[in-house]
Specification:
elongated, 3-stranded antiparallel β-sheet, 9 strands, about 180 residues, alpha+beta, single chain
Length: about 180
């Protein structure tokens, strides 16, 4: 259920208050349930989208990387989606939520910026898709396992000294 359905239910209280009685409450409740059922069947299921995650390259601890989630609409219907690309907390994912409006057979890419805070293999968590209809009274949601691993290497602290050391090696090599 969405906030629109809640607002519709609150609006349904007005006719019940104007014409108090069991029959008016039953009629209003019936209309709301009927609208919600129609909206449920108009909402495309989230399984109509196919997903693929492409992790960024290996990275050193403290350096940023990214993960690209490709969302493809495999259905003949328009998909209005809310997508959450979840990662473990140690991956340092930024802006994991996005809204998409995909035409039939269209695809798009969602890039999640990562700033790892620990080294090792960081695994991507589930991708959750919430699909809405045009009316938006009901949303359908499903979580998918889309595997991805980002390898985080130990930090290269002496990197700032590397240019001077290579310069000294070149000078020694020239002599």
């Amino acid at each position: 259920m969405t906030t629109r359905l809640l607002l519709l239910t609150l609006l349904g209280i007005i006719p019940v208050m104007l014409m108090p009685g069991f029959t008016s409450a039953l009629i209003v409740a019936g209309i709301i349930v009927l609208l919600a059922l129609v909206d449920f069947f108009l909402t495309p299921p989230p399984r109509l989208a196919s997903l693929q995650r492409t992790p960024g390259p290996m990275v050193r601890l403290g350096d940023p990387t990214h993960s690209t989630l490709t969302v493809v609409n495999d259905s003949p219907r328009r998909l209005r989606l809310a997508v959450r690309d979840a990662w473990s907390p140690s991956a340092g994912a930024k802006s994991t939520r996005s809204r998409l409006d995909l035409a039939p057979e269209e695809n798009t890419q969602v890039v999640t910026q990562l700033l790892p805070v620990r080294r090792g293999a960081l695994h991507g968590d589930k991708v959750t898709i919430r699909s809405r209809s045009v009316v938006g009274l009901i949303a359908r949601q499903k979580s998918f396992d889309v595997p991805a691993i980002v390898r985080v290497l130990p930090p290269f602290i002496s990197r700032r000294e590397l240019p001077s050391k290579t310069q000294k090696l070149r000078e020694l090599d020239c002599r």
